[in-house]
Amino acid sequence: MTSAEPSPNDAVESEPLGVPWHLSERTTTGLGVRGAVARTVRDDDVSRPAAPDELPVLAPLWWRLVSGQSVAWRIRRLGNLLRRQRRRFARAVLRWVGRQPEIRRTLASGHLVSAVREGWQRRRRSRAAKEQTRPVICTDIDVHALPESHLLRRDVDLRPISPPSAGDAASRVDGRLEPCPDGRVRCVSAAGAVVAELIGPVDVRHWSPVGFPQRAAVETIRLDAVLESSDAAIRRKQMAGARRARSVTCHAASDEPGLSVARAILELAANGTPLTAGRLPEAVRRELPSELIELVDSAQRADVATAWARELHSIRLRREALTRFSARGRWSHIGSVLGSEVRCVPAVSVLLPSNRPDDVVEAARQVASQAHVDVQLVVGLHGSHMPPDLPAQLDAAFPGDLVVERLPDSMNLGQVLNVLAERADRPLVAKWDDDDWYAPYHLADMVLAREYSGAPLVGKAAEFVYLEALDVTVRRFATGSERWSTTVAGGTLLLSTADLRRVRWDEVPRQVDRRLIDAMAHEGLQCYRTHGFGYVLRRRGHELGEHTWHVDDAYFLRHSVDQRPGLDLEFADVRCGSAS
Amino acid sequence: MKGNDWSQLLPPADERWTPHRLVSICIPTRNPGPGLRRTLLALAAQSYPHRLFEVVIADDGSVPSVTIPPSLPYECRVVRQEQTLAFGAGQARNTAARAAGGEILIFLDGDVIPERQVVSAYARWFERSDLVVPMGLCNFVDTDDLADDQIVRLVADGAMAEHFAGSEVDDQAYRETTFQRTNDLRVEAIDAFRITIGATLAVTSAQFAEVGGFRELGVRGVEDTEFGYRLHTNGAILVLDRDAIHWHQGRRNLTSERRAEIERIRRPYVEALIPLPGFRRSDAFPVGDIDVVPAFRVITPEEPVLTDEFDPSFATAVVPVGLEWTPQAERAVRTIFREHPVGVVRALCASDPAVPVVVVRNRAVRRARHVRPDEDPITVASELFGSWWVDAESLGIVPVAPETVTEDAGPHEGSSAHDMASASNGGRWGHLSAVTRRLIANWAGATLDVLRRWAG
Q1: DSSP SS3 for B104
Q2: Does A85 touch chain B (CB under 8 A)?
Q3: Is the pTM above the cut of 0.80?
Q4: Do A105 and B423 touch (CB under 8 A)?
Q5: Tens digits of per-residue pLDDT, B93-149?
Q6: Of A496, A475, A494, A517, nearest to A98 (Cα)?
Q7: A304 Cβ under 8 Å from any chain B Cβ
Q8: Could you give the CA distance from residue B348 to residue B357 in angstroms, rounded to a whole number?
Q9: Is there a contact between A138 and A327 (Cβ–Cβ < 8 Å)?
Q10: A87, A302, A549: residue with CB nearest B183
Q11: How far apart are the CA of A290 and the nearest CA of chain B, in angstroms?
Q12: A17-26, A400-409, B396-405: which is most confident
């Protein structure tokens, strides 16, 4: 309350007195500065020694030895160490067993020894394959006709970016990239004029969400503390570990070089670090795209207060950073700066098998809403009650490149999918389920995950499940995303068309996805599991007859880590998906 | 309002209001030093209209009796009680509250100086809801070298923070950790009340009476926490108001021995009165004439969930006839509430899915009663605080009469020992005897089980 206001005592009963409700910004903005007043004191007084009565009082050494206090402590510590090692070992073995579902099958079929041997051989094969596939970034896009090393180099001749398609001269890019002394990249047109200067791509092999910790291990830290060290190696290590914090508040001193801070922010964002608002000098803001700055500035403490909100914020940040500053994003930008039509949008064929005419149109609508991808929709109708005007409805729902296959009822799901795979003409294929909900960024995120992980097969787990019988949305896993895992939902698989045509779907009526994942693993093509947001699996209830409850749903309840009433699409960040 | 998210109460930035409620500032004291005199003088600087607040000092048997400085610009009274307890703060606060005439009670300690905006800061929240319990911050500083008029001037100028900047300030670190964890109490948590301290607290006199005031235990360090627990259970909205800054005259001077001593004395009371994990660690026993507060009240679906009288237990379990509520279920439900502070937990039984076991936090039903008294309290509670579904079997809620329970455990992925045992009936293992097959399956299963146990 300011001292300029009239003394309130005079006006109590005579006339209403308008006192401002908000006294200061401390309560309303809730930036979470720790005890606003006390904090200023702390900052100035870091060298304050601990008060003597706060120090733990230890018994004298001889007494600790005689009484066995220290000995017991040492034994306990050793025990903990051994248990920790044993836990690590057991987890590793179980993980390995879990990754080899055939082991169990082969075990059951009798060849115990050969099963183990095969398992190890396959492990070695898949490791080698993983190492081969990892560095290859987005092999399916025009710009990736270039060798990978060129994508990250700064002095690349731009000419071969876009091969002259059908003799169209306009699609050719003439120009060169040169490194600037300050670390930027300069685009020089063929005539020699400098067209643009920009920040080079973020190296996703080092800065990617792989292994993002979904639970914060430490509380909020400050950006300038992360970037404190002048030693490059230490600084890199600090930055890599920063995502373990609940959040990193973007404070930077004005005398730090703007470009290097901006670059660090980009790399942290690509790494999944939850960045929240702070004070950034103008020199840094200038370097960053406004969308990223807005995301950071709008993030308050509430946006990282819970593990769910924190992960969601991190996903939005990394999406923004990776879309714009991965190699593909940078080349796309360079192309637009140089005025060429470099096609840097990933192209995906969506396979949508369906025997439910009610749901398939809605699913097509969701495919149509996918952003930042070039989608071909391949629908396979194989039910018995298909209305004759369904293709027309699909056409209306999906205005893009649509293929509708009417398939006989006698075909099983695997056969249907194989037919659809033959009709796919994009370099990537994604499988789609007709009764689930997908966010508009679903495919774009999957493509990003494929790029930064280098995995031949990516998917997301069915983390968010809508139980129709109970009308509740549950979240199943609080950890486990962004890692190599085969626990993924069938409706989210994304792989290259070439791989799919080689491996093919098993021609069986059920469990085709599981069998495809296993078959890929058998070939040494591992599956990467990205975050679970943007996809809600529907668990139907009405098929269960008049009983509104099914014992299998107990499985989802037992494993749920969070629940929301009703169909909560916001919960899974599926905003534009519509409920049916 | 959902949960404890008080930011939903915040009005638009240009909102104005007119103070109109009478506020009573209750100060318990016993043999006060010069601190009380300074506090009373500094209260004259309050921006809240002086006719709208009174100060009630409860004198807990001081020798000599407490006197107040002359010519204070606001009404100030001393209520005397005879000393009966070793630590009489709770009793004195109740005495002061009984004598107070205000709609809003603000509790203050005699050696704590509120900044000049504090009463306004508290009172404005009651314009938004009667259920709020705004609380402030308390800094501990050394004020010995300041004269009375200097302090009063500092408070009047709003310059306390500037004056003490750079000098040593203790804030209460344990409160700040809770504030961090709960985003300044906006995130619902079943133990959010642990930051309640008697020195910075405001509550309507109606709610004070409803929960029965402070417990007169005569023990340090438990009365205010326990009062906070009951307010929380009553559905109160705990608000952290970072504008309400108080300055305690004198640094904290508790030695670790003293602290351990206080902890030792208060522990049985905490265990008996606060039935929550973190407070009650094991079975609680009555202390003196203080009964143990049960964690759960177990009723049948016919009984009403809401009691007319305030019930200090943590939750109410509505258990249909034919099911048994076990200690195991109690522990499991408490864990669920701690991890997911929802209002209602519904446990579905495979035997009769139409009638689930409903466990509802008393905080949620009490809030429901205050907010929408005419509607079904459980429905409102789950709307306001959310609900959580579990299956009863995993909780350990069992049918009273033993029935055959179906072994179908749903889509289990990890039961490989079973897979092997069943798959080994035929196939290439056919040439082995049944006993050998069984042995191998058992061996593999046992190995995996051991590994799983190790993996934790």
Answers
A1: strand
A2: no
A3: no
A4: yes
A5: 999 999 999 999 999 999 999 999 999 999 999 999 999 999 999 999 888 888 888
A6: A517
A7: no
A8: 7
A9: yes
A10: A302
A11: 27
A12: A400-409
